[in-house]
Structures are given as structure tokens and as C-alpha cells.
Write a structure and sequence with these properties.
By secondary structure, the protein is an alpha/beta fold. The N and C termini lie close together (11 Å). It is built from 19 helices and 25 strands. It binds 5-amino-5-deoxy-1-O-phosphono-D-mannitol (M6R). One of its GO terms (molecular function) is carbohydrate derivative binding.
């Protein structure tokens, strides 16, 4: 995915564009670029491979004269063509008077490129985006139809020809107070200011200036000028887009005194959980945010799939234990990227729970579409109000984790677990497998979790010291049983993505079926252990697993319940967690694993907010 920003208004555009890109750098950081339209009818561009800092340096030394009050900016996560200066956006048309930025993938770009080459156009980059800038330039010049001098009509004509996912924004030298954008399958929001307008992939880019926003719908086009905006469909005619007010402020999108966004987001977890629970229980019943499904329909559900990717998938694995236990419904948890390709058995009595922080992950979105085509009901658990996945779902439960900017998911993951548990309770109450007072008791237990997470956070100094100590290990293994198993998977994912280390998560019982061969002297092995009083059988089994690995020389790092005297003697390092009901333990057990991964990565000298090769959400399949 990439980050896009556009501005028209009275302010100097350049500083605002660069600042907006800084806030969206989590969306891609392979290269960045800006284009500004000046009052004298010139369109100027600066772009550079690498982080935004490289672009800023280029602007400083490059004499680009980026002076004007209309402009566009882009931060890229490369798909077509490597992260080079040439492939950086914006891309120009043949006359150099029109600039385009793009998020997504144009699937029919090869055929369009061939057409352009046939018409004698020379393309200078390897991107799919440059194809659009030339198509648009030709349309605007009137070379391909009746759209000469009309940027909006030109964009509509081009958008109709494109296949795939795209948000496109175009600026033209002859239109100093106007930008045109088109959207299909990629996000775009309009920021509505007073005498100024913004376009962005994410509201964080313009939150400093306005909290009034409009979410552009599928296959919609928008023209912005300082005085307003006009939305239409690709085939013309007015279209409706959804206005909303952003509920958080600039401080939420900044580091607030922390070294990194990830540190801040780890610290915010108690609040993220409390905010996610708030308003979702009315004293007797769990309340969803958007409910286009009747209770009768929920009652007839006979099978649940949770579909998601990465950390969101791990949150679904936790939910499986709770939903099956509370509802007696079979629950399958599927990687969204696999779901629609293996022909899952779905019908109108199947509930598909799509979990996504961003609400724009392409694999999850396509899984949702597949499920709906099979007439299954879809319930979205999402952190981004109005994003595509909730828009296409029958019911929505929003997590209220606030903006998550660090690429590695932390507070959103914990909020997803909490929200998934609420979905389980909603199903249990609809099916009558739990009475209201039982649902209330489960909810009360959930309400105690934010304090337990806050308490866990106060115990992290020793974990940070451990992280520094083991930072040069060649690998770390993670083991868990029951709900500790998804926690182990999440711990391993955090370490892989942040510290670029070999890390594997296993169900502890599987150890002796192969992975134990990996154990060697000094290898750090993190073991997530259940409560000795709540799950005595599992506890004794995992104790045996710990002894097996310790006997083979592993360094045992045990995450367990405070006061667990039986396990402590077998732990080379023991992280004591506040006691919680078994199904809620992942909400505290994940915290030390986040802190450990962050500290190992930091000690190895890596940028924990922007790990290499990654982007915050993946809008391509
Ligand atoms: O926005 P989503 O929740 O759909 O994103 C899913 C994954 O891409 C995401 O959780 C990813 O695995 C994170 N980088 C993990 O830290």
C-alpha cells in the first residue's frame, strides 16, 4: 500500500504535504515524492528513493521551486518496479504538465502500456502508475476522445478502462486550484476544511487542519477546489459519499513523548482495551456498532469462520477457544489469503468474522466478498471507521484502539482479541447458550483486563534487559498450549518482523514431534504457561515440555501467572503476569512478547516503527 495526500487552499502546499506524508509513512517507505502547481502555470516535481528524509534533503538541495498552494504527495510501498527515484511517484504525462499519484495495482497495465508504446509514448519508469499519467494526459489533450481540457471527464474515461485496485489523484499545470481523484478498492478520504480541501489515504494526514471528513465510495470520482468538493460515479452523475467526524485528534497520531510509535502504542493498550469494551455492553446484552443482521439470523448460525491475516489471524485463533466454549458452535480460523482458494463450505447459516485493523487488507476484503457471494453472513471486527471491509459487511464491531501507526500491530491486536470475545458473547446470548447474567459476568471479567495490562506494563524493565542480553541469539522459539499457542505465534511474528530473526511459534505438545530437534545449548525458548489453578492439567503438561527443553540446554523464558511456584524453578527467566480467567490470559501474556521483540530489534539497531519490506496494511493480494 502507499500513502496519498492532496491539497488545495490558501496555504503553502509543500510543508503541509511533507508533514502529511510523515504521518502516513507507515503505509510505505520505499520512496516519496511531491508535486506542486504554481500560480504561474507550472507543475514541479521532486521525488526520491528511500525514506521521506531523503526527499526532504532533495527538496533542500535540489532547487525545485515547489512554490504553490495546490499539490499532491506520495509515499510508496513498491509493487511494480523497484524502489528507485524513477519509479517514485508522482508520474508525469508526456508534456510534463500533468502529475499522478497512485495507491494499488493496475492489473491490465501491460496491455495499456503496449497501447501507449504503439502510440509512440516513451515510458520512463517500470510502474503501472506511469501508464495512467500518460492515458490521462492523452485524454486531457483530447487525443483519445471528447474530454479535452476537462480533467474530471478525462479521469472518468481513464478510470473506466482500468482493472484492479486504485486510488488516483491528478494535478494539472493549467488547473492551479483543482485536484481530481478516483477510487476503486483502495481507500480515499476527503478532508473538508474552511476554504481548503484535502485528499488522503488516511485522515491522520490532515487531522491537524480538520476533523470533518468524507469517505469516498467504490468507483467514485471526486473533484476538490478550495470551496468544496463534488463526487460522481465513473460513468457520470452525482454520487453519495459518507461524511463523518474523526473522533480522535492530532495527539493520537503523534509519538507523545515516546521514542517510537510502537512504544507509545504498547503503552496505550490499557486505554485501547477499555475504549473497545466501552459502549459494547448495555448491562444485559452485547451491543454491536452496525447491525444489519437480525438476532433471528444470528440464532440460526451453525458454523463460524474467522478470516484474517497476520496478527489479526492470531487474534482469531484466540477467539476460537472462547467462541466454541461459549456457544458450542464449530469455529474455523482461516488465513484470508487461503480462504477463497480452497472452496470453503459456506451458506446462509455460516457467520464469517472478518478481523482487520485497517479494514483494507486485500486478502481479507476478497475473503469477505467470497463469503457474501456464497450468501454467508459477514461480521467485521475493524479499527478503521468506514473502511471497505466494514462497509461490505452485514454487521460491524469496531475496536477503539485509535490510530495504530507502528507497522507491527500491538494495541490493535489486543483490541481485536477483546472484540472477538464480544462477538463470542453476542453469539452465545443470541443462541441462548449463555444467560444474561453469565454474559454480564464474562463482560465484568473483561473489564478488569485493562488494569491487568497496565500492571503488566509496570513489570517490563527486566524484559527489556533480557531483550538486550539475547539480542545476538541466532533464533528464538515460542511455545504455548491452548490460548497460549496463538500468543506464541504472535510473539514469533513480532520478533520476525521487527528483529529479522528466525523465530517460530509451536504448540508445546508438538515439540516432541519434530521441533525439539532445534533445541541446542543456550537457545532462548519462550514458553507461555497457563494458570496452575485454572488449568492444572495443561499446566502440568507444559511443565513437562519446559523440563524437556531445559534438559537439552535451552534457556527457558517462562511467561506465567504470578506466584506460580511450581514453574519458577524451571525458568531461567520468569515473567509474572497478573492472574486472569484462562480465556483472557492472552491479553496480558502478549505484552512481554511485544516488549521483548521491540527491545531485541532496537538493540540490533533496527527501526521498530518501519521494519524493512513491510507496510502497515497490505492492499494487494
Ligand atoms: O489491517 P489488518 O489487521 O488486516 O492487517 C493484517 C496484517 O497485515 C497485520 O496484522 C500484520 O501481520 C502486522 N504487521 C503484524 O504486526
Amino acid at each position: 500500500m502507499c500513502g496519498i495526500i492532496g491539497y488545495v487552499g490558501p496555504r503553502d502546499a509543500l510543508g503541509l504535504l511533507v508533514e502529511g506524508l510523515r504521518r502516513m509513512e507507515y503505509r510505505g517507505y520505499d520512496s516519496a515524492g511531491v508535486s506542486v502547481v504554481s500560480r504561474d502555470g507550472a507543475l514541479r516535481v521532486a521525488k526520491k528513493a528511500g525514506r521521506l528524509a531523503n526527499l526532504e534533503q532533495e527538496i533542500k538541495v535540489g532547487n525545485h521551486h515547489l512554490v504553490g498552494t495546490t499539490g499532491i504527495g506520495h509515499t510508496r510501498w513498491a509493487t511494480h518496479g523497484g524502489p528507485t527515484d524513477r519509479n517514485a511517484h508522482p508520474h508525469l504525462d508526456a508534456t510534463g504538465t500533468l502529475a499522478v499519484i497512485h495507491n494499488g495495482i493496475i492489473e491490465n497495465f501491460a496491455e495499456l502500456r503496449a497501447e501507449l508504446e504503439h502510440a509512440g509514448i516513451e515510458l520512463v519508469s517500470e510502474t503501472d502508475t506511469e501508464v495512467v499519467s500518460h492515458l490521462l494526459g492523452r485524454a486531457y489533450r483530447g487525443e483519445t476522445g471528447e474530454t479535452a481540457g476537462d480533467l474530471e471527464a478525462s479521469m472518468a474515461a481513464v478510470a473506466r478502462r482500468l482493472e484492479g485496485a486504485f486510488t488516483l489523484v491528478a494535478a494539472h499545470a493549467s488547473e492551479p486550484d483543482l485536484l481530481v481523484a478516483a477510487r476503486r478498492n483502495s481507500p480515499l478520504v476527503i478532508g473538508v476544511g474552511d476554504g481548503e480541501m484535502f485528499l488522503a489515504s488516511d485522515v491522520s494526514a490532515f487531522i491537524e487542519f480538520t476533523r470533518e471528513a468524507v469517505e469516498l465510495g467504490q468507483d467514485q470520482l471526486v473533484v476538490i477546489t478550495p470551496d468544496g468538493y463534488r463526487v460522481s460515479g465513473f460513468s457520470g452523475g452525482e454520487a453519495d459519499a459518507r461524511p463523518f467526524t474523526v473522533t480522535w485528534n492530532l495527539a493520537a497520531a503523534e509519538k507523545g513523548g515516546h521514542l517510537t510509535f510502537m512504544d507509545k502504542e504498547i503503552a496505550e493498550q490499557p486505554t485501547a482495551l477499555a475504549d473497545t469494551l466501552r459502549g459494547h455492553f448495555d448491562g444485559t446484552r452485547v451491543v454491536l456498532d452496525e447491525q444489519r443482521l437480525g438476532e433471528d439470523e444470528l440464532r440460526t448460525i451453525d458454523k463460524v469462520f474467522v478470516v484474517a491475516c497476520g496478527s489479526a489471524y492470531h487474534s482469531g485463533l484466540v477467539a476460537k477457544y472462547a467462541i466454541e466454549h461459549w456457544t458450542r458452535l464449530p469455529v474455523e480460523v482461516e488465513l484470508a489469503s487461503e480462504f477463497r482458494y480452497r472452496d470453503p463450505v459456506l451458506d446462509r447459516d455460516t457467520l464469517v468474522v472478518a478481523v482487520s485493523q485497517s479494514g483494507e487488507t486485500a486478502d481479507t476484503l476478497e475473503a469477505v466478498r467470497h463469503a457474501r457471494r456464497q450468501r454467508a453472513r459477514v461480521l467485521a471486527v475493524c479499527n478503521t471507521n468506514g473502511s471497505q471491509i466494514p462497509r461490505e459487511s452485514d454487521a460491524v464491531l469496531y475496536t477503539h484502539a485509535g490510530p495504530e501507526i507502528g507497522v507491527a500491530s500491538t494495541k490493535a491486536f489486543l483490541a481485536q482479541i477483546a472484540a472477538n470475545l464480544l462477538v463470542g458473547l453476542a453469539l452465545a446470548q443470541a443462541r441462548g447458550t449463555k444467560f444474561s447474567d453469565e454474559v454480564a459476568r464474562e463482560f465484568e471479567a473483561l473489564e478488569r483486563v485493562p488494569a491487568a495490562v497496565a500492571e503488566t506494563l509496570t513489570r517490563m524493565d527486566a524484559v527489556r534487559a533480557l531483550g538486550q542480553e539475547i539480542a545476538d541469539s541466532k533464533a528464538v522459539l515460542f511455545l504455548g498450549r491452548h490460548v497460549g499457542y496463538p500468543v506464541a505465534l504472535e510473539g514469533a511474528l513480532k520478533l520476525k518482523e521487527l528483529a529479522y530473526m528466525h523465530a517460530e511459534g509451536f504448540a508445546a505438545g508438538e515439540l516432541k514431534h519434530g521441533p525439539i530437534a532445534l533445541i541446542e545449548k543456550g537457545l532462548p525458548v519462550v514458553v507461555v504457561t497457563p494458570s496452575p489453578s485454572a488449568q492444572p492439567l495443561l499446566h502440568s503438561k507444559i511443565l513437562s515440555n519446559i523440563r524437556e527443553i531445559q534438559a537439552r540446554g535451552a534457556r527457558t523464558i517462562v511467561i506465567g501467572e504470578e506466584g506460580d511456584k511450581t514453574i519458577a524453578p524451571f525458568a531461567d527467566f520468569f515473567v509474572e503476569l497478573p492472574a486472569l480467567p484462562s480465556l483472557l490470559q492472552p491479553l496480558v501474556a502478549t505484552v512481554p512478547l511485544q516488549v521483548l521483540a521491540a527491545e531485541i530489534a532496537r538493540t540490533r539497531g533496527y527501526d521498530i516503527d518501519k521494519p524493512r519490506n513491510l507496510a502497515k496494511s497490505v492492499t494487494v493480494e
